[in-house]
Amino acid sequence: MRATGAVVAGVAVLLALASAALVRFRRVSSRWLVVVFALVLVIGFLAWATAGQRLPIIGLLTGSLALAAPLIFGALGGVVSERVGVVNIAIEGQLLAGSFVSAVLASVTKNLFVGLLGAVVAGTLVSFVLAALSIKYVVNQVIVGVVLNVLVLGLTTFLYQSVLIPATDTLNQPPTFSNLPIPGLSLIPIIGPLLFDQSIVTYLMIIAVVVVWIGLTRTRWGLRLRAVGEHPQAADTVGINVARTRFWNVALAGAIVGLGGAYFTLGSVGAFSQNITSGAGYIALAAVIFGRWDPLRASAAGLLFGFASQVANILGIVGSPVPSDILLTLPYVVTIVAVAGLVGRVRGPAAAGRPYVKG
Predict the structure, then answer these.
(1) 264 neighbors 73 (Cβ within 8 angstroms)
(2) What is the largest CA-CA distance in the chain?
(3) What is the pLDDT of residues 286-343, one digit of tens each?
(4) CB proximity list for 238: less than 8 A, separation 6 or greater
(5) Segments of 155-223 assigned E as strands
(6) Which of 163, 180, 224, 329 has its CA 20 to 30 A from that of 170?
(7) Over the stretch 60-99, which tens digit does the pLDDT of each residue have?
(8) Alpha-carbon separation of residue 298 from 137, 286, 303 (angstroms)
(9) 358 in the Ramachandran plot: left (φ > 0), alpha (ψ -120 to 50) or beta?
């Protein structure tokens, strides 16, 4: 324990000195130094918190990826929506709607894929309202998003208490996806269980990250989407229908987020409960900002927040000296620190949050 602490302290001091030297002579610090410094601090914290206990590294990594799935779906939806010019505060509501509908449909039909489809439809319907009010009726996008979150939370809470609780056996007992190991690949040490022994929802998350990144950066669709989000007037002058482009891409973003909502019921606990998302949509929105509106970076931020949640879970299981109340706040503290470090230093899409009315 003392040896680990000494090594961690020594490496942290060296990294701090290196960063100070860069700032002194080049007036800039390396982001990689910051990342490595943070990683060293995490290793030191885990070594202290689990002293005398065995830390399940594989469980920590695989659990982090699983917990990050809804955050990454939410972040991808946020990136698509904001890149086209509509601020998507309603990620929380879309996740919650997808979670509720997927649980009910999968319970009634006993078909997991029907539940997944229902989650996609539910997220899309919520985004339809966001798109209609913010694009057609030029209502403030932030206000619409907040109202939708409150509306979906109130509606699902009412339906849960008045409909699902009295009929739990028939309406709120969905089957769940089991892990689907890929033959051969799942046997690779560390990487195998992490990437190739996951549920369908996690595989869909990985596919979604790749598809959204390629779509935004390598396709005509992505070019049009980014043009509308950066300079809608210029896009309009070259024949792009700004309102239609925004509307259907906000709907697409809602479908992606709704799919993430299915994780809470079909890929995790197996039943819907009141406010089951517990603010995951807001963390996903923070991942969008932390990831600088880039799908890969936003997904990495989602992984970071998922890692923080899994660390809290693992430390609670192994009997860490850290009080349980503090462990529960760990994911949110990491979110605040990550976003606070970037406020004022990042720039989102130029037209995000600004309605466009064709003259």
Answers:
(1) no
(2) 69
(3) 899 888 899 999 999 898 888 888 887 777 777 667 676 676 676 777 677 766 665 5
(4) none
(5) 180-181, 197-198
(6) 180
(7) 888 888 889 999 999 999 999 999 999 999 999 999 999 9
(8) 30, 9, 9
(9) beta
Task: Estimate to the nearest angstrom the gap between the alpha carbon of 122 and the chain centroid.
Answer: 18
Burial of 135 (0-12, 13-18, 19+ CB in 10 A): buried
CB atoms within 10 A of CB 137: 9
Instruction: Record the tokens describing residue 128, joined without a space.
Output: 């339809």
Q: Which long-range contacts (CB under 8 A, 24 or more apart) does 226-234 make?
A: 226/83, 226/84, 226/349, 228/84, 228/85, 228/351, 229/82, 229/83, 229/84, 229/85, 229/349, 229/350, 229/351, 229/352, 230/349, 230/350, 230/351, 231/350, 231/351, 232/85, 232/351, 232/354, 232/356, 233/356
Across-strand partners of 181?
Answer: 197
- Tell me which amino acid residue 226 is: R
353 CB neighbour count, 10 Å cutoff: 15
Which residues, in sequence order, are bridge partners of residue 198?
A: 180
Residue 223 structure tokens: 């070019």
Q: What is the pTM of this model?
A: 0.89
- Distance between alpha carbon 320 and the CA centroid of its chain, in Å? 27
Q: For residue 320, is it left (φ>0), alpha (ψ between -120 and 50) or beta?
A: beta
